[in-house]
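Supplementary Methods, section 5.1.

A reviewer requested that the exact input to the structure prediction be made available. We therefore reproduce it here, unchanged from the version used in the analyses.
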Amino acid sequence: MPLYALLASLLFITVIFIYFVRSKNIHIWGMQYIFQSLTKSKSKQKPIHIMFCFIDHYEPRWHNASIDIERQRVQKWCDVYPQLAGKHKDADGQYPKHSFFYPEEEYREEHINKLKQLCDAGYGEIEIHLHHNDDTSDGFRQKIQYFRDLLAKKHGCLSVNKEGKISFGFVHGDWALDNSHPDGNNCGVNDELIILREEGCYADFTLPSAPHPTQTRTINSIYMAKDDPVAPKSHDRGELLSTARKAQGDLLIVQGPLTLNWQERKWHVLPRIENSDVRGNQPPTEQRVDLWVNQAISVVGREEWIFIKIHTHGTQDNDIGALLGKPVDDMFYYLENKYNDGTNYMLHYVTAREMVNIIRAAEDGKQGNPNDFRDYVYTNIVK
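The structure derived from this sequence is encoded token-by-token as follows.
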């Protein structure tokens, strides 16, 4: 090949690569990805305990659906999920659990009542989700207080900490936690982390959001974020949880796996982003499950406890078939067959609350079977 042709080819490839990195916002987290790829070590201690948590941005009104469509979506989950999950058990005899993060702005009493029955049967728990835009600190606080108290006092959802304070997990709508969108859209509140902590939030589960620009530099981590009340995106960095000392900050951030999938390439060249999102067009294949495990998200010093948080939008019509059908069914079978042999791996299906309890137990130096710590700090409200 002539030199000019070679240089032209290299230039073309470089331009394509730069476009790919920028268009997918990989420049935000790419250096951390490279660093982790080169330095992250895996635990040699056996068995490896895998905490598997399914977070759902559960929006019955998606696409401004009619009330009849809302009811059909909720009813399908209540009818089908027990049939699906009832076929599966983890090392502790627990069913797969679904954490329903329900939007404040879509509240309907009848939907929560149905989901609560499903959860009370052992299939999940309900937490808080919120979409808002151009909001104020007072406005955000009022929304959180209203929905927190409504779920807890009227429906018996959420949890309490050791002091009896109502506690909850949180997912921010449109990914824009702490006003993290570069254009300031879908939030407007720079002190969200402080407000969430003060109102009882035990952890945020929004991330990863890649390829969205709200994605943080920090990836594949469990950490405490310190809020700067006058600046956005304070959770871009934080102090990793460790058994060595108590991490300081305003809010616990629990991230799901984020990496590049080099085995599934676009145009046979560019890797696809693995962002732990499960949809109809992103089924949870065996290869993806292995990638989630290989990110080895853990508390520093307790690397034999791995935390996998995947997410979905469970009421979107194009995805319900996969979430309540064969793709997720196959995922559970694969987890139970490969990652629950009792010698090399033990599998634990957990809710968002149970995951945080086990994370806090790890931080406090607890060892042994994570199943013993499902209610370590936060316990379900009993009504």
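DSSP finds ten helices and 14 strands in the chain. These observations are discussed further in the main text.
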